[in-house]
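hiii, so i know i said id send this last week but things got crazy w the move. better late than never?? heres the sequnce for the chain we talked about at the cafe, plus the structure i predicted for it. fair warning i was half asleep when i ran it
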Amino acid sequence: MFQNLHLFPRNRTLLVDVLAIFFGISSWISINGLWVELPLLVEELPEGWSLPSYLSIIVQLANIGPIAYGLARGFCSKNVPQHLVIILLLLVGSVASLLLALFWDYTAVIGGSPRSLGLFVLIFFLSLVDCTSSILFMPYMSAFKGIYLYSYFIGEGLSGFVPSVAALMQGVSGNPVCQNITLENGTVVMEAVRGDPRFSTTTFFYFLLCMMLTSLCSFLLLHYLPATQAGKASTVALLSDLPPTASPRPPSSRRMSSSSSCSSSSLHAEEVDFPVMELPQNDPKKYNVKFLLALQCFICFMTNGALPSIQSYSCLPYGNTVYHLSVTLNAMASPLMAFLAMFVPCSSTRYISLLTLAGSGMAGYILATALYSPHMILDQSTGGALVVVTWVMFSALFSYVKVCIGRMCQEKDKLFWCGAVTQLGSAAGAGLMFLLVNQAQLFQGFYVSCSNS
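okay and structure toks below
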């Protein structure tokens, strides 16, 4: 029954699929890996619960990377070969990953307060790599047959899934408990003590380094290995593969990246005969593009900027385990739902609106739990389970909607504006929450205090 799906046509080279998957993993693995490690980082670094708000701002500032690359392409008379830029980008990511494993806990006094200078600087460079990959990696993959583009998409999804699995295996240190500690002078004091995860944060960052090096090697093999050249598609081949009724058109963006930007796809993607189940559709001519762009801006405001900045305040009152599960399962749900949207697309403005409304209700509950911090709205077991489920469902719904809106904008040739409002919403959310957390101090955290009386 599966022979009609044509998932493995005779002219497919499995080696190209594998290399494309590992190449795609490098797209966002650094930032996704950092995010799932936050439950441990907030306990170790001086920023504490406000650390996510700092990191959200740094990630948004790193969008200077794709902007600079775009300007350079526009003003330079000679274009640097794309594969050389990608190699340089992956080298920067590898070096920054190594330095992150060595200096993630380096702090310096800035403005009278200790700050995680090592983490901030290195995360900026890793964010430069990840943000710039959005405008480099998929355009490069357009040189290959469209059947391999989906392999890259799988790798891009794994960039969130793989570090989440590693974080689940790592576990968390557990909630702090008060214990008697004997000091070197023999004095017995009571301090908050945490357990140890299965392996350290440094080991986790070395794992991310290994994944980045694997992606670099995969790209080098993908580009230079003679056995992979058969997977590339010439312009003549691309046009000859079009159905008779189709007119040639340039490569256009086909889907939304699960992280933050509109991504390019290949014209040759029509080669893949994936089974697709369509949800209720609208006439494309009746799309209200301005409404869709407004939804996209709002969704990215919440998912990429605002709520990740306050996730610690939403989850930590219920314990480190709740925070850990919320972060990791959330990171796993997002790419899975984005991948699902490729097979079960929805182009109904009505259904998109209903899904956005449902996700907004969940976002409201998440915001309420963060504002109520350091207290719990419900008891630890019930409230903690509800927080985890709400975060996962919120991320899953909005990830699906983002991809569907991207497809709808593509049909109206509005992907540039889709990408623009995506970045606008993400930056606005991160900036607003940074001010509310660190300047207005609207959200409050707590730390276990042990009495020594």
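btw The CA atoms of residues 326 and 389 lie 8 Å apart. thought thatd interest u
miss u guys!!
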